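User: Thanks for the earlier help. One more: Nuclease SbcCD subunit D. Can you show the sequence and predicted structure together?

Assistant: Of course, both are below.
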Amino acid sequence: MRLLHTSDWHLGRAFHRVSMLDAQSAFIGHLVDTVREREVDAVVVSGDVYDRAVPPLSAVELYDDALHRLADLGVPTVMISGNHDSARRLGVGAGLLGRAGIHLRTAASRVAEPVVLTDAHGDVAFYGLPYLEPAIVKAEFGVERAGHEQVLGAAMERVRADLAARAPGTRSVVLAHAFVTGGTPSDSERDITVGGVAAVPAGVFDGVDYVALGHLHGSQTLSERVRYSGSPLPYSFSEADHRKSMWLIDLDADGAVSAERIDCPVPRPLARIRGDLEDLLADPDLTVHEESWVEATLTDEVRPDDPMARLTDRFPHTLSLLFDPRRTDARPDASYAERLSGRDDHEIAEDFVTHVRGAGPDPDERAVLRAAFDAVRTDDVVREVAR
């Protein structure tokens, strides 16, 4: 059986205020084309279909279009909710959608109710484990500790029990939305830490043929049978080095796995550049990034004038501007109290301006600061006299 594993669509999400709706629509088209051209038998979507619990109408319309196009192909789709989704909202109409071949698994109570598909070699049972928030599902699974490992472990016990009761040779696929040990996170995933622990060991999923993971945005292979598809589009500059893709998985008659990465269309590459502003504007090696989405970190000792406008003259798609100036403090390791010792309020204020901007106040700014402090002192004296 041939599966197409994807996750973390995050429909409705922007990238640094740039709408990703057109790019998300292009991805859906690419997904449908891949299903058709590569003769996929089933599509699995491992959570975070939407970017938030109440998505914008444009995202709902795109989701609706995706479901209709997949249903029209006659290829079953199995989908779970992620930590960004509202499980209840995503699961509305699941029974009716199931009749069209779109199988939603959003309830913790249904983890041991697989979608069973059949090929020439027999049955394949698809178990959907939606994102399981430990505090919410603790009672459902009867665990003493509300932790990710405990609730996922209990859910997998139910999966293995159901699988054991099925015909010998039944192959199995688990969809799960979780942070599994060995995976590498990026800045764009929402923290799911509980009690200081976010990750669960991959061994929790022992006993099944393939585990289609969602949550982490980088495509990753934790083992031949346990993989993250990653998000099909970038959602933070920490993903600049990601290759955005889906997994095309073939399960043979014995449940052995072979995998191929299918690249996804990305509207622009991402680039992180760093250095003094003048160097960034002149460096010929950065020509390759002139049409990229750019995050620029300026290291100038003194913050340059109008840096964003100057950067966008060369890099018109600069979306993020950061400052990390080189420091020349005589005593960089001195404590805050030591740095303030013996300095009056006006000097401390001037030091703050220097720290923030990289250069001290000019004469006019010094005059404004001094006038402000004088006014505060005068007000204090007047209030004291009035008492």
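User: Great, one quick takeaway?

Assistant: The chain has a mean pLDDT of 92.
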